[in-house]
């Protein structure tokens, strides 16, 4: 495997803005870094599972992708627009019981986000078909690569969470503007998926 192109491809795709990173940043600004780590773990687990499935069923995925691309795009765009709506209408609610319990399902949310994100699925198929399958035929290697890519997912969303946590200190004054920016970025991501 050409290691440098592989690493550049993975890092650029993982650390650039996208739904995982926007949500990690937004959650950290609202719920704090510690609770958002559950979301980051869910992102990593979901991406690990996605890459493992892509490695195991890459030929099948390439064949069925034209059939599932439109429904997957509609589902992914709808989910991102829903997240944008939730973000835009968010208000600061300190000492609210709902706020205090936030984050209990962040692992599940981060996990399933990977399966409605066409960008993530296309990334998985591309990285597997370009950098893994042509060079390796071992399920152990597929597992190791999936573990590595899941770890990258955790690291990238954690770094974006740190940004959100830093902004949390400044947000009480600019919360509405921040929510508008984050919601706009999610809408932009949804539009980018439609135009892809």
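-> sequence recovered:
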């Amino acid at each position: 495997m050409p290691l440098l192109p592989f690493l550049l491809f993975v890092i650029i795709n993982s650390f650039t803005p996208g739904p995982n990173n926007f949500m990690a940043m937004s959650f950290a600004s609202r719920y704090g870094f510690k609770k958002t780590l559950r979301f980051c773990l869910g992102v990593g687990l979901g991406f690990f599972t996605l890459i493992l499935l892509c490695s195991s069923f890459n030929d099948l995925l390439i064949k069925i992708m034209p059939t599932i691309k439109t429904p997957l795009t509609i589902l992914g765009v709808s989910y991102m627009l829903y997240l944008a709506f939730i973000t835009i209408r968010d208000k600061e609610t300190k000492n609210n019981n709902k706020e205090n319990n936030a984050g209990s399902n962040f692992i599940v949310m981060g996990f399933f986000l990977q399966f409605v994100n066409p960008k993530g699925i296309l990334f998985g198929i591309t990285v597997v078909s370009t950098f893994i399958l042509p060079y390796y035929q071992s399920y152990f290697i597929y597992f190791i690569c999936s573990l590595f890519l899941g770890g990258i997912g955790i690291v990238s969303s954690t770094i974006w969470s740190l940004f959100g946590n830093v902004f949390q200190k400044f947000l009480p004054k600019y919360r509405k503007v921040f929510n508008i920016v984050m919601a706009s970025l999610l809408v932009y991501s949804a539009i980018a998926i439609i135009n892809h």
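The CA atoms of residues 65 and 159 lie 31 Å apart.
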